Amino acid sequence: MDVKGLAAIVTGAGSGLGEITARALAAAGAKVAVFDLAEEAANRVASEIGGVACICDVSNAESAEAAVAKAKAAHGAARIVVQCAGIAPPAKIVGRKGPHSLDLYSKVVGINLVGTFNIMRLTAADMLALDPVGDTQERGVIINTASIAAFEGQVGQAAYASSKAGVVGLTLPSAREFAPAGVRVFCIAPGIFKTPMMAGLPEETQKTLGAEVPFPSRLGNPQEYAKLALAIIDNPYLNGEVVRCDGALRMRG
After folding, report:
1. Which residues of 14-34 are buried (b: 16+ CB within 10 A; e: fewer)?
2. CA 129/CA 121 separation, integer angstroms
3. What residues contact residue 224 under an 8 Å CB cut-off, 6+ apart?
4. pLDDT tens-digit profile of 77-124?
5. What is the pTM of this model?
6. Which of 6, 111, 120, 234 lies at a C-alpha separation of 20 to 30 Å from 138?
7. Cis before residue 216, ω within 30 degrees of 0?
């Protein structure tokens, strides 16, 4: 699918992987709606790429519905959706202060998994009503973001890893459901990338983490995630799969 002129939604687009992906889509000619809970960040990115800022709590039905409606009013129904919104607070199931907070666990699952499903259900409903485009007769593509923690979650990642495993589990059934209408669903499982959260760590810590990656032995560059997302959008035969983008890293417990 050629992104030029098409409406796109990117969640978590105020920073990190989402911001770089939103910029890449805009540079390729897409009309981008920048979804983020941080109003200042969303406005900044949207103004710089000529998009529209949509302040959105992906885990909340009303907030997501309003954001999708605003994006649709500005650009038309989205044919491209890339979901990068997520949080990863570390916490052991049983730590020094006692059991894991159930509220924190619910919050992580609510944003990472329920939020992904929430945006997917709303945008897919719009996509299914669109006319097919191009030689492949596609109506749209949805790219969700999991993590390699879905497969090799480390100690302290119980909430994050299980939420991302849920995102992996959404991939095939949704792809199968939407396939007859020409809407694809794909999932990227990134390794450790140099996002704002990671950039806040000491430089030596970042080098140590990067050295664990077999090749290239460094943290991932957000542009590499964005390149993969655009390649998935471009290739109509990529559907219903989870692809790791991690330099062959397998995380230790």
Report:
1. bbbbbbbbbbbbbebebbbbb
2. 13
3. 193, 245
4. 999 999 999 999 999 999 999 999 999 999 999 999 999 999 999 999
5. 0.96
6. 111
7. yes
Burial track 140-168 (b if 16+ CB lie within 10 A, e otherwise): bbbbbbbbbbbbebeebbbbbbbbbbbbb
Give all domains of the chain, ordered by start, each with its CATH number. Answer: 7-193+222-243 (3.40.50.720)
The answer to whether 154 touches 252, Cβ cutoff 8 Å, is yes
Q: Distance (Å, rounded) from C-alpha 235 to C-alpha 225?
A: 16
Torsion of CA 26, 45, 119, 84, to 10 degrees: 90
Q: Are 105 and 159 in contact (CB under 8 A)?
A: yes
- Tokens 């044919």: give the residue: 79
